[in-house]
């Protein structure tokens, strides 16, 4: 009897791959709205340009591989990669930076391994890390959020396009370090003083970032409601990050890495938990494995943020655990149907 050789993710009935991808795209809307409100239209320009280049690279690869364009482009997987990368990049990033990122994600991280379902690493995060290591200045130049600057200084849609394509003087846009970077570089002020003297902080986390994280949390809850993924990986990641930050929070000294609320509502925490860690292709398979996988990512995020060189460590933590996912699967295999557990069998 011959079996069909089909790689993960497996979907049945109305929950097809294309429908799952469209739900993921829709779930990014609250976070994108928050990013646009606080940082201007730069992220929307990122996403639109990344989508165009990702579809172009996907079509090129499919053409070279002699695959039907309409069938594979309609699954929206290239668009999801483009959205995730565009959201992760600084607003209104240079057009060539986005093109390099989408080209690497689609051609190298996805199609070179055989297409969707065969890639061992998350394409968007692999591309993000490549860009961060290769072009650190462009990747760490974040625009100042609403509240730190006047609303009139935020990039409008036209200015965002001009900045993306190098037609706007960079001096015309106000930039500043991210809240995670400010805490990372602090070695003199108590957290309370740093919070009151720096314009980058809001109520619980980074100014604007707390609402961005709430937006992606809302989108993640929607995906949970639609049963696009289970709660095991995202919840275990957030719990592990909160526990680690609580264990090493010293009350707010100058050496403090930040409170649990600060880590949960700053940077790409919620975006990573619900849109990156839940990737069905590169994560662990069983529910128990997903809990281990997510918890280790949460612990790694804190370790890299507190003692590593990169303030927002979600991409690095995810890629490291992509390496370990097969190992986790090996030791967290569920009980075979029809067999009792070993302990029960001995009794």
Please give a structural write-up.
Mean pLDDT is 87; it is low at 1-6. Helix 2 (29-39) runs antiparallel to helix 12 (209-225), helix 3 (42-64) packs antiparallel against helix 5 and helix 6 (95-110) packs across helix 7. The chain folds into 2 domains: 15-176, no CATH class; 178-330, no CATH class. The chain is built from 18 helices and 2 strands. The chain is mainly α and 347 residues long. It comes from Spongiibacter nanhainus. Part of a membrane-bound complex that couples electron transfer with translocation of ions across the membrane. The modification FMN phosphoryl threonine is found at residue 178.
Short structural description:
The chain is mainly α and 347 residues long.
How is this fold's topology laid out?
Layout: H1 17-27, H2 29-39, H3 42-64, H4 69-73, H5 77-88, H6 95-110, H7 123-134, H8 136-139, E1 142-143, H9 157-164, E2 175-176, H10 179-185, H11 191-197, H12 209-225, H13 232-247, H14 260-264, H15 269-276, H16 287-307, H17 314-331, H18 342-346
Antiparallel strand pairs: 1-2
Helix pairs in contact: 1-5, 1-12, 2-12, 3-5, 3-6, 3-9, 5-6, 5-7, 6-7, 7-17, 12-15, 13-15, 13-16, 16-17
